[in-house]
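User: quick one
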Amino acid sequence: MIAALPFTWANLQQVVVNGIFIGTNYALIAVGFGLIITVTGRFHIAYGAVYALSAFIAGQVAISWGLPYAAALLIGLVAGVIVAVAIERVLYWPLNRRLGMAALMTIFITSLGVSTAGQNAIALLWVDAGTLNVKGFHIEGVNFGKIYTTNLAVTAFVVGWVALLAVWAVIRWTRLGRMIRAVRVNPELSLAIGIDPKVVYMSVFALGTALGGIAAVFTATQSTATPAMGSIPILYAITVSFIASSSSPMVIAGVAVAVGLVQSLSIFFVQPEWAQVVVFSGLLVYVLIKVAQANVGSFRRRHPPATSPPATSAPGAISQDGSLQTVPSAQ
Amino acid sequence: MQLTVSYINQILVLLVFASSLNLLLGYSGVFNAASAAFGAIGGYSLVWLTSQHGFSYLPAMLIGVALAGVFGMLVGYAALRLEMLWLLLLTLAVQLVLVGVLTGLTTFGGSSGLQADGLNLFGHEFIEPTQVFPLVAVAAVVVFALCYRMGESPYGRILRAIRDDEVATRSLGKNTFFYKLSVFAITATIAGFGGALMSTHTSLASPQVFGFNVSIQLIAMVMIGGMGNMLGTLIGVALVVLSTPFFENVIDLSTTVASLSQQLAYGVALVVVIFFRPQGIIPEGITLGALGRRRGSARAALPPLPAAQRVLAVAHRAPEPGRAESELVVQVRDVSKSFGGIHAVNGLTMDLRRGLITALVGPNGAGKTTVFNLLTGALALDAGRVSLYGQDITGLRPDVITTLGMARSFQDVRVFPSLTVLENVMLGVQDLPGDRLGNVLAHPRRTAVAERAAREQAYEWLRFIEMEDVAGARGRSLGFGQQKLVALARILATDADVLLLDEPGSGIDHVWIDKMIGVIQQLREAGRTVCIVEHNLEVVGRLADHVYFMELGRVTAEGTFADLTNDPRLTEAYFGSV
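Assistant: Done. Structure below.
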């Protein structure tokens, strides 16, 4: 296979900086998606459609109302947040109440329906435009030594990390954060001590969607907004948030930056069109490792070494039938 | 004309995909986000081998189909032991990576894909839709009939049971992993076949033809039409495909807008169906042979019953001459199980004897149900040994232990909600020819004869528990007491000698308790070995011949019920000090 870019020091610096910027974008969407799935358990694949909606709304109000860029960005985020909270409140929450533990797949399929409908609704609403660029940001080139970037990329990087740190601080130090952490661990017990999971879930959808919205608007400023612009980012978000295996925003963000770097550095080894495959292969490898762990765990439980002490189960251990389970309670 | 036939061809090709997906998702409850990717294996293989390597149509198609099947088996083997979330993730990753790799490789045409030129089968070219029609029509009819047959057979009944409750299905002697793996591999094979047909229909193998959107569209077709119903699949496919010409010709929209509207419509329809009609347009149970009538709902459909109740005359398992009634059947020796630092069961030793009812009693958290889980293989032992008729069954799978003669019921009953009462009990009948797919397809007569016999047998058990009148009712429609008896009939149908009954008398009123006690006493008289876990001491007192008292995972006392209730320390341990 022919490498797309020669491996030089100058190229390496450029590629690393590009990777960090790409990774920041992934961090926003992955932390947003990860927050939603780890707290609510919703496999919210419609996140991608809402992501696109934020960009289109921001682009449209910037054009139609001539608003400053920051105001357009804010309105885009608010629009996305309203829609996401409505999806949770009107669709996911009632389904979860109806189906309980069996809701995962149904909510995922519902989310697929919302995603398909949303993406095509956006395409129909902007059918004449087809694509949309968020205007109002004067893009200029910026050089750091031999590294070239733009003021937009730097702004997106700074705004992105400020938003990520803000969400991290909210979760770590505020009352809302404590409520989120409590509901993540045990929604039923949280309700017993006066925390309404419904409110927390909606808050999490709002926070998670706002993070993705920031990435969407900057992406649509750099290039253009398209109805399908969220399709790949949501898959990246899934990949990163699962590889991170953590509910901590900073851990997810760190993995996202690593993924961005891997994708960016892959340009030295494979053609650019393989970059996505490299990232998705990460998800495949991660799941296969989990599968191997489950099968090995299952085998060891069935065939314990004769001299070993009695095995014990731990939270999240693999059950006797190989499924990943929490500790079964003794009767 | 050609356009109309092209739409029909599209319906037929997607019917192949969707039928297999419904067998997997609707009947078995196993998710697969990679249907289109398995199709890509069939489609790309066909086009690549014929256009670039000079293969004939049939060998190229067969290679693609076989590859899809093998790949499906590997994916299924990897993921089917795990929770749904991991299967969802793995199939999603397979879809993305496989299509990504095909897109990246120039030998497969990159993002444009491969153009299929000159596809022909024995000289019959596939250029115009009318030329493709005979092939896809025959293929769709065959695949539809095959999936229909599988879904509505005893094999399909097991798939539906797995979908409803995998743990309960396994406890009835069914190797659920094998069934899930077989159906996953079969449906991947069919999807590969569908992919080859799709490439024949479109003369193309490209990332767009087999993209993730196609997998979503297939899920929508199955959900809208009706999960667990092949007729629904046909309607779902037709509705989704024909909505495009509807928007284009009836609403008079442009091609682009019509296409977007079609996708918007099926996305909305998917959500609406999930909310307001989760069973889909045609619910499960409406069959080709009985349109308008629910499966098993009519008593008249059942075969005539035998005049005499066979019920408990399990001749081959009756005590042999010279063997004592109290023959030792199950030996439990020094069994331990810990969860983290909690010793749920700690060095437990007990015996179960033929023709006796043994009770395990003790306060909440004593580890009684965990003992059942350990005996039946639902949990692995940390230490100790369990034997059944002297045979070491430690570490065996739950389904194997059931087939060896030890079956259990559950505290939370676990009746299959979407199956009829009769089907619930039929699932207990062991080793039916129709349980194996090969017999379903190759020996339909033998399967049908055995199915009739199993139905009669199940009916006898229902008469034994005096519930034959509700044979056609769905499990979900029963009251709790009725569910308990159905669960009992279900394990009786396994013909297991040893019956472990978890809380048979809890949560039901006195009428049902009396009925349950009467049934269990008859089991003892018939020489069955019965062990009950029970909190209701009245039930224990009326039934138990021997009682083990458990505290904190240990047996701390044993004897008759009277022995134990006369011990003040045990009474205090059970009820607490007053």
